[in-house]
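Reminder: ligand-aware prediction takes two inputs, not one.
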Amino acid sequence: MYLIMLGAQGTGKGTVAGILSKETGWPQISTGDIFRKNISENTELGKKANEYISKGNLVPDEITVPMVADRLNWEDAKNGAILDGFPRTVEQAEALEKILAEKGKKVDLVINLVTPREETITRILNRRVCSNPDCKAIYNLTMHPPKVEGICDKCGSKLVQRDDDKDEDAIKQRLAIYDEKTSPLINFYKEKGVLLTEEVSEKINRLGKDVAEDVLSKIK
Ligand code: ADP
Ligand code: ZN
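Here is what comes back for the chain with zinc ion:
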């Protein structure tokens, strides 16, 4: 199956996608992670993408769409994938339909994560990620802290804060872009009958792992 994680920054897309990927064997394809890997390796793609990412803007489709199309051609994605961070605009969603249609596939399920805005901002500020690109575990200093401060429980690597998570202006910019460009995808996929909306909030004690469990029970 081809799944899409939809939802604003800080709603837990990466956490849910990571669990789903582990349980289903379908790769988690995170455009943000692919960009960050290219930035850390200083590739041409990374240099170009960073001009946009550092300001909290979207990377243009000319760069993003072919990158995802290429990743979906990998052997590991031939039976399914969990897209995390793509599509983010109606144009990207339309491009994805074409990419999948050429393979005789379609988007099977879109998981729309909804969290109160004040909670998402705190979560982004408290987010720490594993610096090991093969691990990429995600922590939260208050909700899900590592056992040893600054160290990944899973692989022992150093935890870091993403550059775009340090800057409150960049966070607000990313959320504004989500509202303007990405949130229309909720209706886009609702009309196609593939949308599953899931609430994630500390207030109702419902976190990413609870959502992942629910999704797994629905797709198995
Ligand atoms: P966040 O969702 O917190 O912004 P991501 O890790 O998903 O973080 O993405 C980091 C940055 O990479 C985004 O702010 C954006 O600049 C860029 N990016 C990721 N996915 C896309 C996409 N589908 N289209 C354009 N830019 C993207
Ligand atoms: Zn790790």
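Residues 168-182 form the longest helix (15 residues). The chain has ten helices and eight strands. We will return to this case in the review session.
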